[in-house]
Amino acid sequence: MTSSSTGHGGRLGDWARLLSGVVPSGTHPVAIAEAGRDLLRRWSEPHRRYHDVEHLATVLSIVDELGAPAEVRLAAWYHDAVYDPRSADNEERSARLAVDGLTALGVAGRQVDEVARLVRLTAGHDPAHDDVNGALLCDADLAVLARSTDDYDRYAAAIREEYSHVPEDAFRAGRAAVLRHLLDLPALYRLPRLHDRWEEPARANLRRELDALS
């Protein structure tokens, strides 16, 4: 699936196909569809400017292209399902939403636990060196950092819009801290095929934005 996919109907179809492989055979399709609609309603909230359905579609497209297992695909659906720019625990709340929603649908506990773990990882984007699932999700989530200068600037502007309630000085300080955290990571991208393509462009974009904030 890509960001140009056919609206929510196509995404609901993708959701239903994904869930069909992880829920018990007796799970009612209406319950699966309603869970998908709830997620898409969350991703479509009006305050979102970057963390929206297009971002969801991009992350799903990348993990699908990389052949990620179901747990990673599910974590992609849930990783920013709760997104309140005024809150500091969105990843934790998104993980709890995943636990509640997937458990209610009958997904196996070990899979639910892995989905929740992956969602929580997106708070810091620092998976262990041998955490392939974590690398798949975190690398896909950070794909925007390696885009062209113009695309990156549009992303940065969208983030500022999401935090429009924050005064400029406070936003600059907080955003700079986020950028420094990312630049201090041993690698932004852990999968070799993505690291080789994206690491240097992403670091150049981050340094350029950090310079502008300073």
Helix/strand layout:
Blueprint: H1 7-20, H2 29-43, H3 53-65, H4 70-78, H5 90-104, H6 109-121, H7 132-141, H8 149-162, H9 168-184, H10 192-213
Helix pairs in contact: 1-2, 3-4, 3-7, 4-6, 4-7, 5-6, 9-10
Output the keywords.
Hypothetical protein af1432; 2 domains; about 0% strand; about 210 residues; mainly alpha
Describe this structure in words.
There is one protein chain. Helix content is 66%, strand content 0%. It has helices at residues 7-20, 29-43, 53-65, 70-78, 90-104, 109-121, 132-141, 149-162, 168-184, 192-213. Helix 3 packs antiparallel against helix 4 (70-78). Residues 1-6 have low confidence and may be disordered.
Tell me what portion of residues adopts beta-strand conformation: under 5%
Shape: globular
Mean pLDDT: 95
CATH class annotation of the largest domain: Mainly Alpha
Biggest pleated-sheet summary: none
CA(first)-CA(last) distance: 38 Å
Which structural class best describes the helix and strand composition? mainly alpha
Oligomer: single chain
Order of helices and strands: HHHHHHHHHH
Task: Compute the number of structural domains.
Answer: 2
Unreliable stretches (pLDDT < 50, length at least 5) are 1-6
Radius of gyration: 17 Å
Q: Assign a percent range to the helix content.
A: 55-70%
> What is the tally of helical segments?
10
Tell me the total number of β-strands.
0
CATH architecture of the largest domain: Orthogonal Bundle
Find the CATH topology of the largest domain. Answer: Hypothetical protein af1432
